Amino acid sequence: MSTPRTSTSSPRFAQFKLVLLGESAVGKSSLVNRFAKDQFDDFRESTIGAAFLTQTVQVDPNTIVKFEIWDTAGQERYKSLAPMYYRNANCAVVVYDITQSASLTRAKAWVKELQHQANENIIIALAGNKFDLQESRDVDTSVAEAYAKEAGLLFFETSAKTGENVTELFTAIAKKLPIESVLNRSTRPSGPKGVDLSRSARQPSGANGAGACNC
């Protein structure tokens, strides 16, 4: 008697664009490198322009979210380039340094810009990085959390150095994304491309049918 086969379904993949914003030296690159590569370097050089990385998050046993991550430079001279990266982004992480209150002020400005100029459905998370430097804290958790709640943001305090709350941050973002809508669009049969292949097939021999296809 043959053993019955156990049916297993292939995991579903949904892809989203994520951008990191924040002042220089708040740890954006360290945060995303901890997430994407599980690495930390005490002496990272400042990002020039933007860096690109990818990483996945499993949101349930059958669904995986792939993030295309743009890590933007925080220096003022690169600020004008930011719209190139947050345009059409599905989600954003705005990072500040818990030891520098001025970085939270700058983060609030980034949030305001995203809410006015980015995708209207963008998911925004506020990340207070350098949680491992508690002795130097300059931003109370309650203050940042209250602002995040008022602005409708996800909120986490993270440490790129120790890895604390890094995976949790990106997983929470993934769970807020419109995964089912993206999956439904990707599986929906595509319509005609504007070329009637049956009519092309009836063309007299010698006609350049390939020229009619605008693929």
Automatic annotation (TrEMBL):
The keyword Lipoprotein applies. PROSITE patterns: ARF, RAB, RAS, RHO. GO terms for cellular component: early endosome membrane; plasma membrane. CDD domains: Rab5_related. It is a lipid-anchor. The keyword Lipoprotein applies. InterPro entries: P-loop_NTPase, Small_GTP-bd, Small_GTPase. Residues 184-215 are annotated as: Disordered. GO terms for molecular function: GTP binding; GTPase activity. GO terms for biological process: endosomal vesicle fusion; protein transport. It is found in: Cell membrane. Its main location: membrane. Pfam families: Ras (PF00071). Gene3D superfamilies: P-loop containing nucleotide triphosphate hydrolases (3.40.50.300). Keywords: Cell membrane, GTP-binding, Lipoprotein, Membrane, Nucleotide-binding, Prenylation, Protein transport, Transport. Belongs to the small GTPase superfamily. Rab family. This is Rab family GTPase VPS21. It comes from Sugiyamaella lignohabitans.
